[in-house]
């Protein structure tokens, strides 16, 4: 995977607007689950690619550091050869002095070669270091986005469960609404009222029957009195049809 491709994918995923995506989704929970899987996979791939990029950078940095050490070493060799040549020339040994000057030139040539390599390597290493930092930053952003996705998913799942529970509670409350004549409680209350009405009807009927019996008893008493007076009349009693004496007349 090319570095630019990695950077592009990381930037795209890190900048994704979760809320906007969820608003346009038909099934937000399902979409979140898919996004979590996608982010997890992309993070895994990105970590592998970034690790390889960092490994390559460390090799380049090691090569650069070796070239810098080589520049310093060849510089020291050039200085040592030149110093020796000066000592020999001062001692009158021009032939050997020239040999050491030649060695100093070879050392300087080597030093210049490594300096050229350093000059070519440094911009590449600096650019690669910048890319690695960008990759690390983007990867961290992706991990933070993944944490947001997981939190959002947990929130939606919790809200969905809560909504379902509330719906079940509302259905249960509705089923026992005492004002609803079609509810179980309403039907039971109606049955009780009919039973109460039946009891009142029986009581009223019983009371009516009892009153009739007492009326019948009173009628029998009056008939008996009529029969008694008729018998007295036939017996010739002069007082049989007399009105009953007034109260207070007795003993007057």
How would you sum up this structure, described in words?
With 252 residues, the protein is mainly α. It is 85% helix and 0% strand. The protein folds into two domains: 3-175, Orthogonal Bundle (Helix Hairpins), CATH 1.10.287; 181-234. The protein has helices spanning 3-14, 18-23, 28-90, 94-175, 184-234. Helix 1 (3-14) crosses helix 3 and helix 3 (28-90) runs antiparallel to helix 4. The longest helix is centred in the middle third of the chain and has 82 residues, at 94-175.
What is the straight-line distance between the termini? Answer: 144 Å
The CATH class designation of the largest domain is Mainly Alpha
Radius of gyration: 60 Å
Q: What is the percentage of strand-forming residues?
A: under 5%
Structural class: mainly alpha
Low-confidence stretches: none
Features:
single chain; 252 residues; mainly alpha; Helix Hairpins; 2 domains; 5 helices; 85% helix; rod-shaped
Brief characterization of the structure:
By secondary structure, the chain is an all-alpha fold. It is built from five helices and no strands. The longest helix is centred in the middle third of the chain and has 82 residues, at 94-175.
Describe how the helices and strands are arranged.
Blueprint: H1 3-14, H2 18-23, H3 28-90, H4 94-175, H5 184-234
Helix pairs in contact: 1-3, 1-4, 3-4
């Amino acid at each position: 995977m090319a570095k630019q491709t990695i950077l592009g994918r990381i930037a795209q995923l890190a900048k994704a607007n979760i809320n906007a995506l969820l608003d346009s989704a038909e099934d937000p929970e399902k979409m979140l689950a898919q996004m979590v899987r996608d982010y997890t996979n992309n993070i895994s791939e990105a970590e592998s690619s970034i690790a390889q990029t960092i490994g390559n950078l460390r090799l380049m940095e090691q090569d650069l550091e070796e070239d810098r050490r080589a520049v310093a070493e060849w510089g020291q060799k050039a200085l040592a050869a030149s110093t020796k040549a000066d000592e020999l020339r001062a001692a009158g040994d021009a032939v050997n002095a020239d040999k050491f000057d030649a060695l100093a030139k070879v050392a300087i040539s080597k030093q210049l070669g490594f300096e050229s390599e350093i000059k070519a390597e440094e911009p590449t290493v600096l650019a690669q270091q910048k890319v690695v930092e960008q990759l690390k930053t983007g990867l961290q952003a992706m991990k933070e986005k993944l944490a947001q996705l997981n939190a959002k998913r947990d929130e939606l799942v919790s809200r969905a469960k809560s909504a379902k529970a509330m719906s079940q509670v509302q259905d249960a409350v509705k089923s026992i609404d005492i004002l609803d004549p079609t509810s179980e409680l309403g039907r039971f209350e109606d049955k009780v009222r009919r039973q109460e009405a039946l009891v009142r009807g029986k009581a009223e009927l019983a009371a009516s029957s009892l009153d009739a019996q007492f009326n019948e008893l009173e009628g029998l008493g009056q008939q008996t009195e009529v029969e008694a007076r008729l018998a007295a009349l036939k017996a010739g009693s002069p007082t049989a049809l007399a009105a009953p004496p007034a109260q207070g007349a007795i003993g007057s």
